[in-house]
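dumping this here so i dont lose it again. seq + smiles for zinc ion
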Amino acid sequence: MSIERILIAALLGPELARWKAEGRAPVYWWRDDDARAPSPALDRLLELSRRFEAPVTLAAVPDIDLGPLARACEASGGVELAIHGFRHRNRAPEGRPSGEVNDQDHLTDIVAELATAIRAFRRAGVEPRLFVPPWNNAHPTLVKALALHGLELSCYGGMREEDSPARLDAHLDVMRWKPVPRFRGALKFLLRARRQLVERRLKHLWDEPVGLLTHHLDHDEPTWRFLEAFLQAARPTARAALGEAWRMRPAYAAGAKV
Ligand SMILES: [Zn+2]
């Protein structure tokens, strides 16, 4: 057994046993960001997805022809494409968090940008359902524009609050980003994963998805090795198969006893 699998079993095993005792298993889903076109790294990602029957939501930037990417994903199977911004270009004023949408933007312009992005996906034969804002920046103007287009939002962070709007987030980033992109480290990743599981168990939010986040273009070898082991253990579910629980959380959480 690989060291990665031993660590996964050691750090998550006892918590998973508590889930099992309640007749439950965590629901994982998987998002990968920053795709534009086929590449050797994408091939590697899709190979893992096929090998472990792990559906993946690939967040793609529609500033080039997405046709080749869409065809590669369709040929592989089990891939959903999501919109990852307009051009993935930072437009934040000096000193503000990076993002594509800022306070000066008018809603009508952002609605039009979004329409252009949706058209780029449709030209590639894809009807997008989910939007992943670059730099995790869900500016209120962007959120309004998404609602007008009927798109759902996916961010990154901790488990969302009970009263937050429906959002399918990622929670577990395999990478760390500063000073340079590299593997986060098995221990750090798994301790965060365990905290996510404990929180769901204590709140009886059994169906609240745990989102794995990857960036195939930035993975170093340790990231690929860990991802291979984690996918084998986590068995993600496709976004479309997650059911309605995550959308209706406030309602079904109301009866939960901590
Ligand atoms: Zn990105």
